[in-house]
Amino acid sequence: MAQKPSIPKGTRDFGQIEMARRNYIFDTIKSVFSLYGFQQIETPAMENIGTLMGKYGEEGDKLLFRIQNSGEKAGLAPEKGLRYDLTVPFARYVVQHREELSFPFKRFQIQPVWRADRPQKGRYREFYQCDVDVIGSDSLIGELELIQIVEEVYRRLGINVCLHINNRKILAGIAEVIGAPDKIVDITVAIDKLDKIGVEAVNAELKERGLSDEQVKALEPILNQESGIRNQDKLAQLREYLKDSEIGLKGVAEMEEVFRLIDATDVKLNIELDLCLARGLNYYTGAIFEVKALDAQIGSITGGGRYDNLTGIFGLPGVSGVGISFGADRIYDVLTELDLFPKELQSTTQVLFATFGTEELRYALGWTKELRAQGIAVEVYPEPTKMKKQMGYADSKQIPFVAIVGGDEMAQNKVMLKNMASGEQKLVSQEELVKELKS
Predict the structure, then answer these.
(1) What's the total number of domains in the chain?
(2) DSSP state of 6
(3) Based on the domain organization, do 300 and 332 belong to the same domain?
(4) In this structure, are strands 300-307 and 287-293 parallel, antiparallel, or unpaired?
């Protein structure tokens, strides 16, 4: 018995319509990245495992896909893994190619990543990320440009979003103030789950991770933020809460400057200072971002932040960068749920030639060259079969026009053009056909 075709859980096939929609997302994102001077690079699907390990926190390390060495002598080649994200390979790329690059270096990258995660809605084992980073500058203009990019991408896609922002220095200051500076990683990993598991469960996890009852209680003002407070008022409250923490106050100052830049450039994006936003990746050191769709329940669709020494682990210390990643697969799911994909994406073909006989088929082929030279996407039904079958093909592919060729049309050097939406038909010359399709 033949094996039933299947694919691994957490992966997907993409048909013609899905690819048209995915390319719409990628093309929209690419065009916005380019507006801000970012240029595209690519890195390999696999990296040496030493490049990946220890960069994503304890939970991230568990989700790395390891690759069995093959084609190389056992024990001689380093172990490899599929890339978990695009940021760490980017840091490796910057260090490896630093003599060829101009800094600040602005790049974007759109490639698949892999995580050995449990598949569920909005969470896949293989998925695409669309990363944009600037590295080699401490300027908070980097944060501003990323916020502007988020605003423009989602404006073009028609998705209402809220950008949540925080600063890891603020989180470090909070850990310092409650007397647990050595527990910053434990605190951030736990409170990053607040949306998913709630305050009580977060408190329980904090205690499991070694925080005392008093320290957990001291975190209450952070975990129980009132909604509706203005960002500026939150920052003022933080200044008081963190008055004895130098690093915490530095984080507050950075956030104040980011909001001044936002005001100066008239950003209209919905932005919320979210003190419970932690992003569990250890390499973030400054501003951190997360974007959520307001009209769909799917979690974060964009995220990132500032990292001050990611390249240091590869031998290039003290180089600061900031970047964000657009989750193309989750964006796809949001656009599908909200029915926001443009209808014209259903078909790339503008006109199908349908013919009654062999001579008519040859005649149609003579027209296609000229139409394609004019940038018009054309198909010819490959055999002169029943007209009903040819029309059915056009319907199934949502081709908007059919050019019908019979003996009478050939005699007049014309075609009968049928509008598939209205059913209207008219006899047109090649010049008129080009004009009609271009309009």
Answers:
(1) 2
(2) -
(3) yes
(4) antiparallel
Give the closest residue to 65 by CA, choosing from 146, 6, 10, 4.
Answer: 10
Assess whether 329 and 378 both reside in one domain: no
Count the residues in the chain.
Answer: 439
In which band, very low, low, confident or very high, does the pLDDT at 226 lie, cut at 50, 70 and 90?
low
- Quick check: helix, strand or coil at residue 46? strand
Q: Model's pTM, two decimal places?
A: 0.86
Sorted by sequence, the CB contacts under 8 Å of residue 232 that are 6+ apart come out as 259
Rounded Cα distance, 209 and 277, in Å: 19
Q: Residue 67: inside a domain, yes or no?
A: yes
Eight-class DSSP state of 64: P
- Neighbour count for residue 344 (Cβ, 10 Å): 12
Three-class SS state of 38: coil
Instruction: Report the sign of the C-alpha dihedral through residues 429, 431, 437, 439, in that order.
Output: negative
Longest dimension (CA), the chain: 93
Q: How far apart are CA 263 and CA 256, in angstroms?
A: 11
Residue 408, SS3? Answer: helix
Q: Which two tokens mark 71?
A: 């084609």
Identify which of 85, 110, 91 has the alpha carbon closest to the alpha carbon of residue 29.
110
Q: Which residues, in sequence order, are CB contacts of 355 under 8 Å at separation 6+?
A: 361, 363, 364, 380, 381, 384, 390, 404, 405, 406
Show the domain range for 392: 347-438
Residue 176 · residue 163 · CB < 8 Å: no
The DSSP symbol for 375 reads T
Q: At 414, is the secondary structure helix, strand, or coil?
A: coil
**CA-wise closest residue to 194 among 174, 219, 215:** 219
For 257-305, what is each residue's pLDDT tens digit?
Answer: 999 999 999 999 999 999 888 876 677 899 999 999 999 988 899 999 9
Bridge partners (DSSP) of residue 302 are 291, 326
Domain assignment of residue 371, yes or no: yes
Domain boundary among 290, 310, 337: 337
pLDDT tens sequence across 64-84? 999 887 666 666 677 899 999
- Is residue 417 within 8 Å of residue 399, measured between CB atoms? no
- Would you report the helix, strand and coil content of the chain in percent, each value rounded to 5? 45, 20, 35
